[in-house]
Design a protein that fits this description.
9% strand, alpha/beta, Isoleucyl-tRNA Synthetase, Domain 1, Gyrase A, domain 2, Rossmann fold, 3-stranded antiparallel beta sheet, 563 residues, 3 domains
Length: 563
């Protein structure tokens, strides 16, 4: 049931000559205070057109209202305010959620079209740090949202598995490495070598030349260089997948930078055929001055290709392979210019799908306000953080519920979920500082708080031991239940908004609000009293539990039934 539309149709009786129902819907607001009703229309927007005082317009609107879903309408200054009929609302909303179950909030405007999400993309031979968390969990949540609205998401892990850094790593391994040590702890040993290389190169710049020479050998297919590169890559992937398993994230493709080595000539030829290539100081570029952007570097003066060439090749390959409706890049804000250039070059090639390239930027995770740097060895390993979070969760579970079965599994769901949730509750473009102790708390606006609320609702359902009668009319009219019901009814709109904005924090804030409203309801209401409203109250508990679980699932967070 679309209550905004119902209200809009009533408003249209008075102002339909000037505004369509859809236009009215877009203008309807939710009042800040409960005594101002459930929905409101700003009549002052029509004052000039109608040449009337806003108060007079509001009065005319409310006098024309007649619908069973609207209990009453009042003119409050320049607003027409609407109070919905609570019993009918409760009955319709609860029945819809119970009927649709996990499909409540689904949309079908995706129509099965493919959406590619380029996410995570760690560099080979480097550990998965906290810096990789954002792209991974934001990308995964966006993929879940795309599925919810009818698209087919394709998760792509564009591995950083090519480039000069591999030449540097090979040189470092040749100078100071030990096969035995690398086999024993691949990533930790390789990162030591990488950091040492940069420290030594500051004192001996010839090392950089040697690193570049090894990368040239790799490009030319030198057996030793290829062997080491393949070894570094396979060991890294094992490590990465262990972390992805902890996060519950999977991928449909691991095609990284190296995959496009033989696919770049195609796009260079396309640029040449379109007369877009220019030579500037020996480098081959595409001039993007008309977009107010710096030139896109296609080839260096020595003929070597660059990130832009590779990303153009990847975009072209992905369009030809998947025919995507959207190709979303979940990459840090510092790369915004790069993606503007990518889109502009594709536009210059007159490719209509250039508009389907979407960069989803995000802010940084900092530690004590400082950016983390792999090069200087200032990293916090993601796997270590997830394990520590799980341990903290286990301590709290043992204090709260020592007899809980499957404590370890629940602690994993809570600890890992806490880290994911904390990231996603922040608007993705914001920077935030990470402090683990604050994240794994069962109180406050945290993942564990929402999970605990879900577990509480499931506990109530077990105690009630009641099969909900959906043929009976549900009627809940008290203020606390009303706040919960309004949130539940609005959930499909929340899903759509979150998907359109690629903003998982919208879902995170929704489940926090729902958990808070439900806990207030539970504190003020004797839910388990078997009276005439018992069936309705249990239906409310069931729908709340269902939406908390679903909302958390969209974020990639589990919802244990017991905690």
């Amino acid at each position: 049931m679309n209550y905004k539309k119902i209200v809009a149709e009533q408003i249209a009786k008075t102002v339909g000559e000037h505004l369509s129902v859809d236009e009215i819907v877009s203008m309807i607001e939710v009042p800040k205070y409960a005594n101002q009703g459930d929905l409101a229309f700003p009549a002052f927007t029509l004052a000039k057109v109608l040449r009337k005082a806003p108060q007079a317009i509001a009065t005319e609107i409310v006098e024309a209202v007649s619908d069973k879903h609207i209990a009453r309408a009042e003119a409050m200054g320049p607003y027409a305010n609407f109070f919905l009929e609570r019993s009918a609302f409760a009955d319709e909303v609860l029945k819809e959620v119970l009927e649709l179950s996990e499909h409540y909030g689904d949309w079908d405007y995706g129509q099965g079209r493919k959406v590619l999400i380029d996410m995570s993309s760690p560099n080979i031979a480097k550990p998965m740090s906290m810096g990789h968390l954002r792209s991974t969990v934001i990308g995964n949540a966006i993929a879940n949202l795309e599925k919810k609205v009818g698209y087919e998401p394709i998760r792509i892990n564009h591995l950083g598995d090519w480039g000069t850094q591999f030449g540097k790593l090979i040189e470092a391994y040749k100078l100071w490495g030990s096969e035995e040590l690398v086999k024993a702890d691949p990533i930790a040993e390789l990162i030591k070598l990488y950091v040492r290389f940069h420290e030594e190169a500051e004192l001996d710049p010839t090392l950089d030349d040697k690193g570049r020479a090894w990368f040239k050998k790799l490009e030319d297919g030198d057996p030793e260089a290829v062997r080491l590169w393949e070894w570094f890559r396979s060991e890294s992937l094992k490590e990465f997948n262990r972390v992805y398993d902890l996060l519950g994230v999977t991928f449909d493709s691991y095609n990284g930078e190296a995959f496009y080595n033989d696919k770049m000539d195609v796009v260079v030829d396309m640029l040449e055929d379109a007369n877009l290539l220019k030579v500037d100081n020996g480098a081959t570029i595409v001039d993007l001055e008309k977009y107010d952007l710096p030139p896109a570097l296609i080839k260096k003066s020595d003929g070597a290709t660059l990130y832009m060439t590779r990303d153009l090749a990847a975009a072209n390959y992905r369009k030809n392979t998947y025919d995507f409706a959207k190709c979303i890049y979940v990459v840090g804000m510092e790369q915004s210019n790069h993606f503007k250039q990518l889109k502009a070059v594709l536009k210059e090639l007159n490719l209509p799908w250039s508009e389907d390239i979407v960069h989803i930027p995000f802010g940084l995770i900092t530690l004590n306000g400082k950016k983390l740097s792999t090069r200087k060895g200032k990293i916090i390993l993601l796997e270590g953080v997830l394990k520590e979070a799980t341990e903290l969760a286990l301590k709290q579970i043992e204090a709260k519920n020592p007899s809980l079965e499957n404590k370890e599994a629940v602690a994993h769901a809570v600890g890992v979920g806490a880290v994911i949730f904390h990231d996603l509750k922040n608007d993705r473009t914001n920077n935030f500082d990470f402090a683990l102790e604050e994240v794994v708390q069962f109180e406050g606006e945290t993942g564990p708080y929402v999970q605990y609320t879900h577990a509480r609702a499931m506990s109530i359902l077990r105690k009630a031991n009641h099969t909900i009668d959906t043929k009976e009319a549900f009627s809940l009219t008290d203020d606390d239940a009303w706040e919960v019901l309004k949130l539940i009814e609005n959930y499909p709109n929340v899903v759509r908004f979150a998907e359109e904005k690629c903003e998982p924090s919208v879902i995170a804030k929704f489940v926090i609000n729902l958990a808070q409203a439900f806990n207030k309801y539970y504190a003020h209401t004797k839910v388990l009293v078997e009276d005439e409203a018992f069936n309705s109250r249990i239906a409310l508990v069931q729908t709340t539990a269902s939406l908390l679980k679903q909302g958390l699932a969209l974020l990639g967070v589990a919802a244990p039934d017991e905690m």
